[in-house]
Amino acid sequence: MNAHLQPTGSAYFIAKETQVAESHTLSVLVDNEPGVLARVIGLFSGRGYNIESLTVSETEHESHLSRITIVTRGTPSVLEQIKSQLERIVPVHRVVDLTVRAKTMGQERPIEREVALVKVTGSGEMRAETLRLADAFHAKVVDATVDHFIFEITGKSSKVDQFVAVMKPLGLSEVCRTGIAAMNRGPQGM
Amino acid sequence: MSGTENQMTGAEIVLQALKDNGVEHIFGYPGGAVLPIYDEIFQQDDIEHILVRHEQGAGHMAEGYARSTGKVGVMLVTSGPGATNAVTPLQDALMDSIPLVCLTGQVPTTLIGSDAFQECDTVGITRPCTKHNWLVKDVNDLARIIHEAFRVAQSGRPGPVVVDIPKDVQFATGTYTPPSAAPAQKSYQPKVSGDARAIEAAVSLMKGARRPIIYSGGGVVNSGPEASRLLRELVEITGFPITSTLMGLGAYPASGKNWLGMLGMHGSYEANMAMHDCDVMVCIGARFDDRITGRLNAFSPNSKKIHIDIDPSSINKNVRVDVPILGDVGNVLEDMVRLWRAGAKDYDKAVQGDWWTSIAKWRARNSFAYKHSDDVIMPQYAIQRLYELTKDRDTYITTEVGQHQMWAAQFFGFEQPNRWMTSGGLGTMGYGFPAAIGVQVAHRDSLVIDIAGDASIQMCIQEMSCAVQYNLPVKIFILNNQYMGMVRQWQQLLHGNRLSNSYTEAMPDFVKLAEAYGGVGIACDKPGDLDGAIQEMIDVKRPVIFDCRVANLANCFPMIPSGKAHNEMLLPDEATDEAVANAIDAKGRQLV
Description:
By secondary structure, chain A is of the alpha+beta class. Chain A has helices at residues 36-46, 76-88, 98-104, 125-136, 157-167; strands at 22-31, 53-60, 65-74, 92-97, 111-121, 140-144, 148-155, 172-177, 181-183. Chain A contains 5 helices and 9 strands. The radius of gyration of chain A is 22 Å and the shape is elongated. By secondary structure, chain B is an alpha/beta fold. Chain B has 3 domains: 7-181, Rossmann fold; 196-364, TPP-binding domain (Rossmann fold, 3-Layer(aba) Sandwich); 379-549, Thiamin diphosphate (ThDP)-binding fold, Pyr/PP domains (Rossmann fold, 3-Layer(aba) Sandwich). Chain B is globular, with a radius of gyration of 25 Å. Chain A: Belongs to the acetolactate synthase small subunit family.
């Protein structure tokens, strides 16, 4: 059938997405050189990928290696494409999809932890309630005056979310979260 | 490797590193931040510098040089505007996988970040349009980085790289490290040999095919002449039909008996129908671009797909394939040919009999047909005559972007790789003329022709001055229809024939323009005069602008309107004014 008999279209074809998006955690081992983080972030913004969380720090000082942990959201084919695109960056050594690897080992997810500092201000009865709840969450007091606490809490993002939520009515004034650090279970290295 | 014998200034290191990487020509434009390097260029004779008239021209020249020789193209520009003008050719080279080393000057390290005169964040601006880039902050890193730049540019999937060199680093003295002693970055080690099991799986799939097709691309040309030879051998021993992308033309000869012509939006009917109906597709060094596939969910619906590519991110990007083979096309083809030959006794090409009958029927549709005229030159006719009059010569063709580019691809027969330079991925108007100059620099005695449009040629016309300065007898063959023809064609298809800004009201007199630059101008508007005029153009050993006045309203067919499948082509004999106007409905028009 020829085109003019069934006319639809445009200068580009705009496809409908049928796959379901999933959230995955990627570990990226890179040379610690200037601009490497910009290359990774530029790839995500330039190609329209999502970043839900990103952490980066040098892991092996002598070999100048840094580890970037990215939580991203996309359909399985987009996630596969993200991994290949990251591998193409010259200073990238390895890219591991920790979520995929966890699944192949029969686990739900890799170990994912986040640290948050949470400042809560207030006085009177509320302070006792604040401390009691913090204790229940295993949050540590790292600074305090008669008017405030700063708590350090470590755990899954959902636990941090929950802690922040319960602190809200108790005088939450400031939150700083690190983003996710992640690793697969078991003896095998990355 | 110590002592004083290897002590040099940064500028000396640049020249020494270029020589040690086999560079003979560089294309560039001086400026404040690269003066020390230009001073070194002045004091040596090993490397010839070609002075361009705009940095974009330098980039496209380096691309044409690289594409026609298989070597790395080198450009040298100053900081700030020099670097930003290089962005278009860098992105062009990135999309078409052309190895390019771009050296940029930068303000002194102490001034970086101070908004100094002619400062820009070159590595920041060029990060997304290069394969990799470097800012050199220490003169002792300079040699290693330049060597690494050449390695990255030409290995794996080739591409452009930028080395940004601050002016104080050019003046500073440091140690020169030769290429053999320079450490390579460990994280970048592209895989060239294909997985043996994947290749076996591919060959067994190919053996079982009843309706096979080979779809090859620019990767075959990039892989080198041996890859093209192996591709021809594979076609010969398998008897498979073969089509190619725009970038891959010439890898398999247009005169070859299994050749179906180019595929895609303006490809041949037989190539697109065969892609749609095949049962096994062998994609070799191509990337399933949207101009190739048409509507993705209707792309070759019933085939098993094999994909050979050196870039892992090209695999399963647009189209899911059944047998991915990661590796250099040349290496993989060598294994594939050997494996096929080993089991060739059991294979009977007769199983493809019905398939070739179908192909013959599609071919008979004669999808490139056009109505000849004795009064006006049809653009297709102009390309055909140009081809006939140049095919027995040592000819290289470049193009700009638009209708003329598609007609050149359809009607000019390419017999060898590296003879066809065009901007495929980025579609850069203004590419063809500087690219032709770059080709001519590498092949001084060859016939180099830029097939151009009247709009595209004006985007880098200033390089006439460069061609005249270096006695580069490049021929510009303009198919002049006074329109941005492809823009007009889409306005006819999508926008109710409202020709918004696609007509050029004030066209220069191209003959006088050529003469003003010191070149030769030729004009022709009669089909009967065309052969003589083309011959005159060939015979002149100076830069020529050939103003070929063609039928103004001719359009480029066949065509797969976007969002259509391969078997929904608009064929020339069905493309009446009414059919063109109604090819895309109101809903489609809203999409882009």
